[in-house]
Amino acid sequence: MNGKGSLFRASAKDEISFDHGRADENGNYRYTDIASLQVSQRSNIYGVVSLANAPRKCQKGLDYVLSMVIVDPTYFDGLPINVFAESEDKLPSLRVGDIFRCHRMMINFYNGKRQGMGSKRFGFSFVVIDRFDATITSSSTTCTFTPDDLERIKALKLWWEATESRFMKKQELLSNDSNQAQPSSNPQGEQDNDQPQQNRNKRMKLEQLSASNDHCEVICQIVQVSNLEGSGSTQRITLKVWDGTGNKTPALNARNIAQNEKIMHDPSSSFGPLMTVVVWNGGSLPLYREGKIAPGQWVRLRGAQTKIYGGGMELKMSTGSFIELLNEDDERVKELVKEYLVRMDIINSKPLEPLTLFGTITMTSGDDLPPYLSLKEIYDSENAVGKFRCKAKLNRFSPTIKNFSRPHCTPCDKGIQRFFDDETQIECPRCNTITNDAIWIFQLLLQDDSGTLEVIVYQKEGDTFLGNTASNLYINQFTLNSINKKIQSLLNPNIWMDCCIKSYLTPNGLRKFQLFDTKIK
What we know:
This protein has 521 residues and is of the alpha+beta class. The protein is built from six helices and 27 strands. The radius of gyration is 26 Å and the shape is globular.
């Protein structure tokens, strides 16, 4: 629908229109101002997008959901909306300032506030009109525009142009408000736990991040910046950031980082994880285009959302979140740097332990050990599927030790895609079974003179490696302490591990490496 041109350059006879649903006897729809919307009614609405999150998979069911907020001249506080679809490509493609028209939006009441819900079960349909050239950027079906529609779109466009700067300033002032309205329900009327209100925008350090989809504020230094990717509503950049806390994670191979004197991150240090931050199309991208988001720059990430992706954690910055540039003499920056330097002084003052072979190999065959290879030789091997042996050091691990285990549903025989917490029992989103079972799933970044290699420790191989059965480490303090002691010992730069590694192919053809028959002595 993008090729039809601006609505303002089209006449009422142009072929841009088909039936969107029922209309009155004159072929017109009745639209309701946001301030006049009634709960438990389906309504037709026009509004301007003031906030739009990236699409995500629902925790319950098979649908995808896009959370957004729209405003109009009658309701500047904004109406939160959840739009549901069976696939991500059927969700609206939009950005802040676009005009959003919808028919048969169901209005609910949640947490004391009205909230819109768009689902095909209500006959919901939508169309998005570009904020700049008034072209249709996405639509759930073909659509009709009358002269009244064009006047309404033009009025909203002019109103937003006059008020956008005032609105964005208000959003920035509200970004630390934990009670700010967020879309949070699904088509079945159940609470969507993807956006918890507790701890929203709480100041946290990278080592403290653990809960999926928690909103937080982080002060950190940019280590690496990607090129601009995607187009339209999918435009994004990827950052690697550091704050000097915690143990390193295999989020980034240190060999690929362009160092400069401003970057505090030390590839040879055992401390300071590098966190991936995906910045989606929104208010922060102009800073990137101006060259202000660059390696070495200290920033304050406001309204960042933690997401579990590919077995690891990353931060997501979408519309409504902000990146604030900080100077090196900012007191918050100076405090982080001071804490990091103190930790390094303590570690460096400890006497080095003698060189020992800490890991041992126990092959299942017992007498058929493969020859030693370097990590580069393993990675470059022509055998996509095979078994290898190496001597390497532990460079870093991911996620935090407390999250080495994941909930596991025995009836489904599958892991549950979330971390444990202080709850003793977890509900499986597939079969609703209550379980307290667990499996190991974590990553180690091994290093030798030839380079680095990321390996996965999974299920029973975790039992062998750690010498402990998987459990909820938020509750099992004894096991947590035992594993923490073992992993910290492996981080000693004088300790070498004797490892067995097998490579395998994922269903989509990616080659992965997994630790097996290896245990900590």
